[in-house]
Amino acid sequence: MYTEFYGLKELPFALTPDPRYIYFTPSHTEVMANLHYGIESGRGLIVVTGEVGTGKTTMLRWVMQRLDRTVLVAYIFNPRLSVPEFYQHLAALFDVRNWETKSDLLIELGKVLDSRHSRGLRTVLIVDEAHGLSPVVLEEVRLLCNFESDTAKKLQIVLTGQPELREVLNYPDLRQLKQRVSLRCEITALPNVEETAQYIHSRLKIAGAPRANIFSPGAIDYIFRCSEGIPRNINNLCDNALLNGFAAGESVISRAIVEEVAATFDMVPRADRLKNSEEREGPARIFNAAGRAELWAAGNGDSGNGNGNGSNGEFPTDAYSFTTRVAEPEIIFNEHARQESPTTIEELGSAFNASGLGSLSVPPALAGGSYFDKPSSTLNPPANAGGTDRFGRGNNGQNL
Domain locations in the chain? Predict the structure, then answer.
């Protein structure tokens, strides 16, 4: 629809993995080098991981189109296979015939690999979306690595998948498969706005765009923020932005058009979502004025009259003030003032008798003074000092 309006020969931002539109980032270049080295030198098992939409399938198709005709490639893109289905699919891709059981298939496959390896030819098995393979199928993949000579692997295996593939390979039951991985590499998202602009301009140029400024700098900046540098998200935003721009008759895609598309596809950056939520109107009040006044009075120790009125029945103007409050008075442990003079033994005896707990006799010699103020010579022992009690027990002259 919009191709003629913008002078394009074809759709530049289709979601299909067209290898003609591949854009080589530093991570893509590294992965290409690893694949070339691993397949050429017969390293065996290679693992390539990358986030969803970073271009793993596009890269694989680019590689397969450029492999020499002598390289036999089997490409599996649906990992939801049982073990029998996996071998059946493998036999069809490698053109292995005349087999009925798994043993027959392995024998025939071994003959094919031996014949090709003896002639210096490479055989490659590529499994896309490998993070979806079941552990039992991954174990069969490991056993396929046993097709080897003394110096090289006869079957090169490439597993590509999302970052979850790394977690799968860390399963204890698959530690043998993990040990056989000879090369690992990762495809990352576009790192910055400049790379995103180059990516968009590259696809527009391949599609035959007569000019490179179809997207404004502000639009490209917002596309990067919304997509987080993931090529598939960039394609989706750009394709729909061109469609909206065509409908509005805009020759240049502005930031406002991209913002509208991002909101439609729920791709608004997280920071913008938080900002919009902060700008919303605050929550409605739960209590009325009287209820708030009563709550504030209760918090200040003023119980009020139970009808929402405190000391003056008004909500204080400094209800939410954070100023320093007046220090609380010191805690009083005894509400009676202490006497300056010490309590005498007569006063203690009177208090003890009044309590009903017993009697406390005051020796005549101690009248008018404290018991502890008299010297020991003035203390007369009781009459039975040094004698025995009614049970015949002696007290050794001690006052019991």
Answer: 26-187, 193-278
Instruction: Assign domain 26-187 to its CATH superfamily.
Output: P-loop containing nucleotide triphosphate hydrolases (3.40.50.300)
d(CA 221, CA 255): 8
At 25-44, the pLDDT tens digits run 889 999 999 999 999 888 89
193-278 maps to CATH 1.10.8: yes
Residue partners of 293: CB distance under 8 A and separation at least 6: 308, 309, 310, 313, 314, 315
Decide if pLDDT at 2 tops 60.
yes
- Residues 197-247: pLDDT tens digits? 999 999 999 999 999 899 999 999 999 999 999 999 999 999 999 999 999
Contact 68, 36 (CB under 8 A): no
Q: What residues are paired with 125 via a beta bridge?
A: 74, 157
End-to-end Cα separation, the chain, in angstroms: 118
Check for a shared fold between 26-187 and 193-278: no
